[in-house]
Specification:
alpha/beta; 4 domains
Amino acid sequence: MKQKPHIIVDVERMKHPFTGLYFYCKNLAVNLHKYHNDKFHFHFFTYPKVKFPGFLNKINRSQLDKFYLTKPKKYKLWHATWQDTKYVPKNDMKFVYTIHDLNFIYTDKPDYKKKKLLQAVQDKINRADAITVISNFVKEDVKKHLNTKGKEIHVIYNGVEVNEYPHFDTPSYRPKNKFLFSVGTVLYKKHFHVLPRLLVGNDYELVIGGIHPDKSYIEQIWSEAEKFGVKDRVHLTGPISDEEKYWYMNQAEAFLFPSISEGFGLPPIEAMRLGKPVFLSTFTSLPEVGGDKAYYFKTFDPEHMQEVLKNGLKDYHQNNRYQEIVKWSKRFTWKEATKQYVEIYQKTLGLPVNTALKQKKCLKLTAIIPTLNEEKNIAQTISQVEWADEIIIIDAYSTDKTTSIAKQMGVKIIQRQFDDFSTQKNYAIEQAENNWIFILDADERLSEDLKLEIIDKLNHIDNEDGFWIPRINYFSGKKVKFSGWQNDKVLRLFNKNSCLYNGKLVHEEIQCRGKVGFLKSPILHYTFKNYDDYYQKIKNYADLKAKEMYRKKEKPNWIYQQIKPAYRFLYHYIITFGILDGKTGWTIAKLNASGMKERFRKLNEMYQKKTKNL
């Protein structure tokens, strides 16, 4: 079998989270691997500290790469994914160059700076074996201002993926009235400061999400809001999560994006994917992206903008534009975008063009969540695994609203009297429709990268029957770095035909008869809210552990009763460096020692009760 070529895709812009280039780079990497890893060995070049999906091949940038970039000969092609990149290979590696925009041309920068920036792009065009751009607007800009040396310019639209969180309902700011929404890096070029004028003559609120790199521009937005007398209805949230962005887009009356400097514009398409009316400026690429399915501000005159908004919303509702807007948005997918990039890679390397998608075995998954009085957690926990093919709640007869909330969310609920953790979970596993199981406790959360990694594994199972997953623990909201929890891992993704819980009453573990692999992305375990919560859980565990020892006929030993609690304290606080966790480390050590004492106290009680009954 012919070896797949090794290529490098530069995603170093991921060093700036919450930006358009961050999401472009991440989605490009994930989807190249998802759809085309049968054709290439993909390697992704970025900074060492960048949070990057662990299942992808990452190459860490070295300090020298910026000055002299050369990589081993096994790498056949380098794809620079940003026009201003400083990373261009010096050897004879093939070079694909992506240009997102030449927006600096339209700024008030001095001419000598514009000329310098254009020359830097020109130098990379001269080096490039293939040039791609993200819109026809950018293509025309490149042709007008630069010399392509007769090289073809390929237009590849960005893909858009909207992660849906239908049960998320806790945004950082919840509007009191109907509201308009916008999101992006809050800079002048996004032109957010013209939006407050749209609140005149109505009772809408305006919510703008995104990072604030320019404090003076934030003041300009507030000044405009004050000028139009609407400051109390304008809300700048700062950076927002994917869940919050989905919530705001889905709940908003309309999405606004008056940018004057845009190579493509992902947020408008994300809003259109949800069927929302979108209002854009007519500048740069936005008319190309929104087509005739969006509404446009031709000027930023207040009366004109107010009229466009009023008439646009009227047209949207009277003519029921929802379906046609969604249909338009589906032109922009990462499946199609990566197909086009791979075609460029193959042509550049002189390979036959083959962009067909490999038929992959997609294994179905059942997610299981054990519960007892988890009304505060259950909705968010279920939302973490809504991508699973089946969700089962195994509930130990909760007396709060846990099951009613789960029922509203449409998941399968099994109630069973709790005897021990192993038996409870094994019972749920037996009821699962699918062979592959993922267990998630109600106080745990998935990182987005773990979700992607699990889905990837289900598409690329080799001969594994289970997977260890690292776990990061939090105590009272604070990450615990030591205290014996630093190397925590759990076997939670497994094939039920080869794996079951081992029968322990507490601290139960999966026993797997087959091969066990490792995932790289972590489960986030918000294990204890406070001291009292931890102490109660320690007592419950002590009770179960004492019962387990009693079943095994282990008798309380006076020496053990004195030594083991002391050792447990030393283990958590000294041996595993809990002292470095500060007050949290001391609390964890103290409570674990108390739990050990409680275990022997319970065991003593059991034997004393037995003696009395004789």
